[in-house]
Every structure is written in C-alpha cells, then in structure tokens.
Amino acid sequence: MTPVPPPAMLDITCLRRVRPWGGDPVDIAMDAGTITAIAPAGTAPIGVREFDGRGLLALPGIVNAHAHVDKSWWGLRWQSYGGEGSTEGRIRHERAEREALGIPSFERSAHVLREFVRHGTTAIRTHVDVDDGIGLRGIEAVEQAAAAYEGALDVRIVAFPQDGILRRPGVLDLLRDAAGRPSVDRIGGLDPATIDRDPVGQIDAITALAADTGVGIDIHLHDPAELGAFQIELLVDRAARLGLQGRINIAHGFAVAQLEPARRRDLLQAMSDVGVTMTTVAPLRLPQLPLAELDEAGVRFAFGTDGIRDLWSPYGTGDTLGIAWQYARAAGIVRDDDLLRVVQLATSAAAWSVGRDTHDLVEGARADIVLVDAENPQDALVRTPERALVVAGGRVLHVA
C-alpha cells in the first residue's frame, strides 16, 4: 500500500495572534519548517498562508516519549480483553492474537499516528516489537505509516524485544539488523531479571550492541525496589565503561519511586552522572516518579502514552497531555510552578527524547506548535482541552 499524506497537511507561513506559554499575543512566522520570527501581534509581514490564532494559548508540540504505535487494534471493532494479569501472560496472549487483527501493519500504525496528531503530538519515540515471529515487519509498518507525513511528524523508533532476548534465539541478531536502519535510533530491552532471568547477560548484550552500532538504549524496567535498582546500577556501570553516556533511558523504572529516600537520592545521582534518563506513563496504581528529586539530581524525564487500545489493555486515548494530567493528579501536584513544569515535561523539556537540543516557541526552533483554548499552561493541563490547531514542521496536520 502506498502511503497517502493525511488531510489538511498544508504549509503555513505565519500564526497570528497567539499567546506562547500564556504571554502577550504575538505573530509567529515560519519558513521551511522552522520558526523564523516572533513579533508583537499584527507586526509580522503578511505571509502567503496564515492562520488567525484568535488569542489562543500556544505551546510547543507535545512529545510522546514512550509509545507503541505498532500494537493497537484501534480502528477495528471493540476487542474484549482476554489476556492474563502478568507481563508474561500478556506477552503470550499478544503473540497468539495479533496476526488475526493485522498487528503489526501499516493500517494499524497509521490509525494510531492520526490519533496522536489529533491530540497535539508532533514528535514520538515509539517502541516497535522485534521478535522471532514477526521479525522486522513491525518496523517496516511504522516506517511506512510515518512516511505518509513526509517528515512533518517526527517518529523515532526503538527496536523492542517484547518477548525477551536471551531466551529467544535470533532476537539479538534481529536487533543488530534493526540498528542498521535509519529510522531506528535505539534498541530496547525488557526486565532482564524476570523475563530473560539473566540481568547481567541481557544488559551486557544490549549495551555491547549499542556501543558497537552507535545506537542508544531504551529499556522497559518494571522490576520493583532493590531488584530494579540493581539492574539500573548495572546500566549505569555499563554506560560509564562503554562510553554510553547520555544514550540510555529507563522506561517505567518503578523501582526508583519505591526506594527509601536516601537510597533513591544516591541512585538518581549515579544516573545523572552518566546521563541516564527516564520516561513514565504515570501508572495509577503505583507511586509516581518524584518530580522534585529528579530535577534536583538532574535526571531528565518525559511522558509517554505506552500502548493504547491493544491486546494488553483497552485503555488509552493517545493524549500525552492527558498522561501529564494523570501524573500531576496522582502525584498531588497543585502549585503553579509545578504544574507548569509538568507541561514543560510534556513539551519543551522532552526535547532530549527525540534528539533535539531545542523544542520550544523560539526563533530557530522547529515549527512544532499546538494551539488550545486555555488561559495558561496550568489551565491547559488541568482541563486538557481539545487541540484547536496542530502544526508540525511548519505544516498544519490538524484543525479542530
């Protein structure tokens, strides 16, 4: 199937009368996908294609730093959940049922990307399953779905061994093959202790592969408390020894929130020293990653939607701002400065997760802009209003 550009994907030269981060109204001019000027409202030169923002709040494009766009059944009829309650059980259920639902495929991935865009997402880091059953077909499907946006939507792929590495012969070779594709900038891992039952073996394998190929690592780590902390320490050690500073991300990392404060402080400092980052999907039934402690230690983190409407769970809307709301609410965050910080973590402060130095409403930045009808970023977070306009790389991808 030949990818078809989504409707309304039009170049734009100027957004007029918008309020970046809730400030005074301005005009934002852009060219070739880049913000070229920000001027008081009504003073920017008349452009060829303009959009009147009517005083709406402008935020940088929302960044989804942990997605699974290859897995969803969204767009099909409702699928009743039939899996088991454990990670292992869900893996088995998914492998048994996915082919009948066309997972993975261009159609399924394209539907998820459309939902992300509708919710203001302009940059995505997505884990894509690589295993002995589907090989690299999932990566190919996501590449095809992303290509329909002709570069406007920034999609970064993590080759993800959902069914383990060491216990499945050939998967490490598949990860090496995936690491050679331009769309893949990281390889993944999954609970080295409880899935492969060999934490040193799995971590040594993926860190050696990353060092050899030049890609980064984004590992799912659900294991709790000291078991999880031990594996994080292994990753910190390998980052220092193999030159992987700034190239390892811990997804979920429940252990960090479960440690005693002094132990957590020391672990976060060790992570910061080698640039290990974190992403969270803000699970409701578990303690949240501590915002102030992460910031104090200098550990960068960001939000993601995880899987949405898939064989693991029927939940999810594709709205990363909604995940940020969930995190703030579950963590008891109420003060304006902290609410603003949470919005930043869903937008500008997540630049690192998609390989950018800057992702903000400033001259020279990529023209990724979302407009919402809100008084300020805090209001946008607590109400998560409809996204009125989504611009990615200077192109309009969605208009409400």
UniProtKB/TrEMBL annotation:
The protein depicted here goes by the name Cytosine deaminase
In short, the EC number is 3.5.4.1
Task: Fetch the Pfam families from UniProt.
Answer: Amidohydro_3
Span of the signal peptide: none
Primary enzyme class = hydrolase
- Gene3D superfamilies for the chain: Metal-dependent hydrolases (3.20.20.140), Urease, subunit C, domain 1 (2.30.40.10)
Give one GO term, molecular function aspect.
cytosine deaminase activity
**Residues in domain Amidohydrolase?**
50-397
Q: Which UniProt key words apply to this protein?
A: Hydrolase
